[in-house]
Design brief:
The complex is a heterodimer.
Chain A lengths: L1 H32 L17 H24 L5 H18 L5 H10 L4 H29 L4 H41 L60 H13 L4 H12 L3 H37 L5 H25 L12
Helix pairs in contact in A: 1-9, 2-3, 2-8, 3-9, 4-5, 4-9, 4-10, 5-6, 5-7, 5-8, 5-9, 6-7, 6-10, 8-9, 9-10
Chain B lengths: L1 H15 L9 E11 L5 E10 L1 H8 L16 H11 L6 E5 L2 E3 L5 E8 L2 E14 L3 E6 L6 E5 L5 E4 L6 E5 L6 H4 L3 H5 L12 E6 L2
The chains are: A mainly alpha, B alpha+beta.
């Protein structure tokens, strides 16, 4: 029966459409950014690594490898600093579009928790900022203050790495627990009353954990300014959302779990840049570069977060009003996303996924 | 069905988030020597790996040295020791096949680091567990997870030391637009998470002896 299959079909269609749009946007971005920003002759042979990921990898390597020479140049030439900041920013953007770094965690978390795009953006910026601070703290304390060796620093990094993976797994476990129960409840409610088709938007969601609201409920705004913890130290460049925007349903504190989970683990690239800058006697340049990397990262992660949230909203809208199946579908998607966080964390923790390796040799 | 769709979406998202690829933070320029015994069998490989300056600065951070900014072989001794010990876990990023059969290496010998022009070079010899006489030897140097980007040096990347006359060496570089590199597209990344992902970036040395 066609109507029966329809939510699934539509959902799939929506996903396909979104992926297509994302692909086209990426291609456009490619063409725009393919021009070398420094006016230097374009590389004669662009290695046909093919595909978006290959190109991202190539670009990010290109920017990263320019960093060391630019930091060196900044020692004598102040204008090189601007180049450094630009490279760092660009690196951050490309770097985040690649692997790991909790993008998957943030996107899945947003989908699982019925978050708004706005909140997704805020979370992306906050976690990227925390990541930058983590890198600066690690290098600042261990290398600058204690003059520890790479070996010691590496051990510290390794410990943080394991802690962060464990946090992701725990976070995923909790999401799965909450979402699994919600799905079960939705199943119980939906099964015996198929006649409810006429009641629009009644998803029978009694789960009151965080006072979630449905994606297609535009009347809800998420501005409870009850939690005004301004922990934010915007580096002056980040014109992202204000911390009050984190205070959606459940408040700032709930978002903090996601921020901590993702942000506690610094990027190896930032650590290397910081140590290199320190060795050149330009630690502050390294710090500036790290913040710019974080800003670039935040922008990419925010875009991914918005895509994820929109994809889910579209799926929600398309499946809404169907005989209870729509609600079930949404709960299913949420549980799927929650499971993904758990699998991702467990995979990282037990070494099935190598998102990033700590530089320990 | 719905759960299935959830999964599809989840997988789509994770792909969009690029959860399954890696990227280098360390660049190594490598030269390798294949060592032959008098009877024409291969006894091992001698590598010299030069790290990029960023990683080099990181690696010497906090090390004591008599002269600031210069490190002697002795001062770098403990670091070299750590390096080769850590490399064991990654099989020294060196994979050998003699006539199609996998060969194993013993622990490295004669290892040391030197520091010149702000970069570190790690020298070490990997003896083959069983020296082997083969018509064809394939040696690949790469990081499976692509955290380290290996490039063979531009000049004299591979040397055959004491090889029998008539041995032919061929080097396939990962990014010279050869067939391997062109196969690298999204599909490759989708074939299992990280499945031999670094393979695409392998430097392949093939030696054919009569």
């Amino acid at each position: 029966m066609k109507p029966h299959l329809s939510p699934l079909g539509r959902g799939l269609l929506a996903c396909a459409a979104i992926l297509l749009v994302a692909g086209i946007a990426d291609a456009a971005l490619h063409d725009v950014l393919a021009q070398n920003p420094f006016g230097a002759p374009k590389q004669a042979s662009q290695p046909e690594a093919g595909g978006l990921i290959g190109w991202l990898l190539a670009k990010q390597s290109e920017f990263y490898r320019q960093m060391s020479s630019t930091i060196r140049a900044a020692k004598s030439d102040g204008s090189a600093l601007w180049t450094l900041l630009f490279i760092s920013f660009a690196y951050g953007i490309f770097h985040a579009a690649g692997p790991g770094h909790g993008k998957a965690v943030i996107a899945s978390y947003l989908v699982a928790n019925r978050e708004t795009a706005r909140r997704g953006i805020a979370l992306s910026f906050a976690s990227a900022l925390m990541q930058s601070l983590a890198a600066i703290l690690i290098v600042g304390i261990s290398a600058w203050i204690l003059n520890a060796t790479a070996k010691t620093m590496c051990k510290a990094e390794g410990a943080i790495e394991i802690a962060s993976y464990a946090l992701i797994a725990l976070f995923g476990l909790r999401l799965v627990w909450v979402k699994g129960r919600t799905l079960l409840r939705a199943l119980q409610v939906a099964q015996p009353v198929p006649a409810l088709a006429g009641v629009p938007h009644d998803h029978h969601d009694h789960h009151g954990h965080h006072h979630h609201y449905h994606g297609h409920d535009p009347a809800r705004t998420h501005h409870h300014h009850g939690h005004d913890h301004v922990h934010d130290e915007h580096c002056g460049h980040s014109h992202g959302p204000t911390p009050s925007e984190l205070a959606g349903p459940g408040g700032w504190r709930r978002g903090f779990a996601a921020i901590l989970t993702v942000g506690i683990r610094p990027c190896s690239g930032a650590i290397l840049v910081l140590v290199f800058a320190l060795a050149q006697g330009l630690f502050w340049a390294g710090i500036a570069a790290t913040f710019l990397m974080g800003l670039g990262t935040a922008i990419t992660v925010a875009v991914i977060a918005v895509i994820a949230v929109s994809a889910k909203d579209v799926a929600g809208r398309l499946s809404a009003g169907r005989d209870g199946g729509g609600a079930l579908l949404m709960r299913g998607i949420e549980l799927g996303a929650a499971t993904l966080v758990l699998l991702f964390g467990a995979g990282l923790l037990f070494g099935y996924i190598a998102a990033e390796r700590t530089t320990c040799f | 069905m719905r759960v299935l769709l959830g999964w599809l979406l989840a997988v789509g998202l994770s792909l969009a988030a690029g959860a399954a690829s890696a990227h280098p933070h360390v660049w190594i320029t490598a030269t390798s020597e294949l060592l032959y015994a008098e009877d024409g069998s291969i006894t091992g490989v001698r590598h010299a790996w030069t790290f990029d300056d960023m990683f080099s600065a990181y690696a010497v951070q906090g090390l004591e040295s008599k002269t600031k900014g210069a490190y002697t072989r002795e001062e770098l001794g403990p670091l070299a020791q750590t390096n080769v010990e850590s490399l064991k876990e990654y099989a020294y990023f060196t994979f050998a096949k003699a006539d199609g059969k996998k060969e194993r290496f013993n622990d490295p010998v004669d290892y040391y680091l030197d520091y010149k022009d702000t970069v570190l070079t790690l020298h070490f010899t990997l003896p083959l567990k069983n020296p082997v006489k083969s018509r064809q030897l394939v040696l690949e140097v790469f990081d499976r997870s692509f955290f380290i980007d290996f490039q063979m040096a531009k000049d004299n990347p591979v040397k055959l030391v004491g090889a029998p006359a008539g041995c032919q060496m061929k080097l396939d570089r990962p990014s010279d637009g050869s067939a391997t590199a062109q196969k690298l597209n999204e599909q490759t990344f989708l074939d299992g998470p990280n499945a031999n992902f670094g393979m695409m970036f392998a430097n392949k040395i093939t030696v054919e002896c009569p």
